[in-house]
Structures are given as structure tokens and as C-alpha cells.
Specification:
alpha+beta, single chain
Length: 71
């Protein structure tokens, strides 16, 4: 699968990821990256899932995310 983003879209997508990272409640360094924990919010979960779905064509997107409660 090839990336279909063009023009200003890669920069916009980066801004979306930065905005999402800013919403994290906690950040924990792990061997292959960083684990972010977010507040339980259905809307936020949908945003994260939509951004993460692009991993198939964009190597800059984290390879995995999980939806599991931490509390």
C-alpha cells in the first residue's frame, strides 16, 4: 500500500499526532518507544483509532496501539 497523502497533508497529520500526544495523561519510556496513556473517552479513542489505522501505509505511525483500561 502506498501513502496517498499529498501537499500539506503530511504536515497536517503530524500536527494531529502532536495534538493527540498532548492529550496523554502519562508517558512511559519502553524499549521500542513510548507508552502513552489517555483518559477514558469514547471520542478520543475514536480519534486515536482513526490515526493509527493509517499505519499500513505510513512508517512514521506507531506500529501498534491497544485499547485497554489502565484503572
Amino acid at each position: 500500500m502506498a501513502c496517498t497523502l499529498g501537499g500539506a497533508e503530511p504536515g497536517e497529520r503530524t500536527e494531529q499526532w502532536q495534538h493527540m500526544v498532548d492529550k496523554a495523561e502519562t508517558r512511559q519510556e519502553i524499549p521500542d518507544g513510548v507508552r502513552l496513556s489517555f483518559p477514558a473517552d469514547a471520542g478520543l479513542a475514536g480519534e486515536i483509532a482513526a490515526l493509527a489505522a493509517e499505519h499500513g501505509c505510513c512508517s512514521a505511525i506507531p506500529p501498534s496501539h491497544t485499547d485497554r483500561p489502565t484503572r
